[in-house]
Amino acid sequence: MSKIVPSVDVESSAAIAKGCERLRGKNWGPPASLLRSSESPSPLCPRLPFWEDVVKAEDPVPMRVRVHFMKLQHVDTVSQEFETQVWIQFKWREHVPVGLQSQGEKESLGHEVLMASGVGAWAPTLSFLGSIGNVDEERATRFVHCAGDGFVSVYHRYVIRGTFAERMELLNFPFDQQRLHVRAILWDCPAAVHGLSVGQELGGQPGPCRTLKLEAGDCQVYEEGFIQSDAWHLLSNVGIKQGMTGSERNDEGVQYTRLNVYVTLRRRANFYYFNICFPMFLLGFISFVTFFLEPTDLNSRMNLTLVILLTVVAFRFVTVSYLPVTSYLTMLDYYMTSTFCLLFLVSLQNLIVFLLGARELLAAFTSADFNKWTGVALASSWVALHCLLPVFAWYVRRKNMMLAMRDDRESGDERELERSPL
To answer: Is domain 51-268 classified as CATH 2.60.40.10?
Structure first.
């Protein structure tokens, strides 16, 4: 298995440069600015211009990632999208050429000098997934030269603004918790080809060079940039994960680094408590008025129940406008269904009481007794349901908090980033 080495002779440099040229024709290889002369102590065909003094040639290159969610707005549950502005910073270390190290000990090396020497010629190129419309990007690169150790720290910054689609899990709505993801692919950072080690030759050509080991730096969420605090509770933690694209997405089976950053929101349910649940609770109690009407007056009883049923149907149309079309029932759907079931049982009770009173089917158990005890049972069940509702909501939120500490179910191949020492 061949490895990238820090120095090569002229013949090897020509062969590797030729291989890089072939890879560049397949959009694999590095730009020509990364190819250095044989006098340079750097490897000639890495995709990343890192040095063996930093990491071993066969190891992934460490790179620190910091993410700041500067703005987060227009989180739309129905259209399942959100608008955000994210600041992403990458930091890595590169070796300063020997000729510049002595100069750097005497004076500060400028940006132009380092760029002209090939330092910082590479920078991660991000392609954002799930964006709706265009994504505005701002990029900037700067250097911090550490005199004496022969290395320079390279900082590359992205500031993106755009609208992103997010598949929201609404099973626990309105007690749900959502993760809003910004996903990107680093096209310049492949990993292994069909499981082969990085740097292994493929058909006589150099393999895709080093992969990255992303490490997490300090991340923040700007609460002042979140304008929907009345509807959502913004959690302060920012998640960062690294994964790989599928090998089937590339003709040569190349896997590229995938970056996944996300922030977590927890929905505030007070709006749904007071505008949906509380009116439904009162309408259910109003239906119990039929238990105090004459048992044989079926017409008056059913008229009142029918009016309440039509009111609940109108509320049902209102709740549908808060949610996208899903193939499953949310918790709010189950609650609304329980209200329909209550009205059905009240209507059924009215009919049974009428039949008992009109035909005297039971002599020992009068229709008045049946009306009283069934009414008490239905009213008690309705009150018990609403007493248990806050307890159930607390349990669901607690469960969501535990699930938030685990990996996303749709991205089991991704891993949480370790803390970066850079």
So the answer is: no
